[in-house]
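Table S2 (text version). Query chain:
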Amino acid sequence: MRKPLCTLVLALLMSPLAAVASYLDHELAGEFTDRMVKTHGFERAEIEKLLAEAERKQSILDAISRPAERTLEWKDYRKIFIQESRISQGVEFWNTHRDTLKRAQQQYGVPPQVIAAIIGVETRYGRHMGSYRVVDALATLGFDYPRRSKFFSKQLEEFLLMTREQGLDPLAMTGSYAGAMGFGQFIPSSYRSFAVDFDGDGVADIVNNPVDAIGSVANYIAKHDWRPNAPVALSAFVAKNHDAQVFDEGLKPKYTVAELKSKGVGAYADLDGKAKASAIRFIGDSGEEYWLGMHNFYVITRYNHSSMYAMAVYQLSQLIEQRYGQ
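Corresponding structure-token output:
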């Protein structure tokens, strides 16, 4: 027997999907709207319209909550990012944007190959920048991902400020499932802090404009204290009786080169003994490999807090530079 129409309607209204049909009705929406109105001077109707149009994406919650099947070792991680296609595309990117990369180096001190490598690792030079609407990603994670709700709610706030400042449509912006945008995958707070209008058109557009994206990546790295002409990472050796604890001291250089050498970890190259470095150990194709991460290596980790990420950027930059020189 068919259920009465009124029963079906009532069932739909009481379903979980109906309860979250609009973020305007979410229990956290009122507090967020009040903050945007009182603190930043937005029109209430503007924020309410945006939240009404933002969509909850289960695929985003699945992606951010899914536990890694295994922890990648360097030998596996490297294969993802150090590929012939990524090297050749990096050379092509350099050739296409030669003048912009040169100007970025002159202004910010960051070499073209490092800028290209970061964009190459992040988005394959703009080929894969993410297809989620940023407002959907940040609303979903800000309102429906309790573990990091505070962070993503703040990023939604930063996103709306950013789009207002740059004159961009918040409903048209796309990016990763975590709300990162553009060639260099800036989250909204980084966008506001480091994105630059590098072509002088009045808008810092790192999503559609590779010129702005190049200047913005260079600015980000420079603002985190990149040192021109300084080393990034150097191959190292360990003594049999080395102090293994030095490999667990975090990303920021804690010891001087001389101190690390006294603990049984040294570089094959000559270095200033007073220079700071971190000791790095990876599992490579041939077993354990050791590195000294210098100041500029740490700077790259400020972009992504991972020693493997920084090493992928560094090694890709070397290969791009070598190929470009040929």
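Notes on Table S2: Residues 230 and 306 are 20 Å apart (CA to CA). Strands lie at 132-133, 174-175, 233-238, 255-256, 265-267, 276-284, 287-293.
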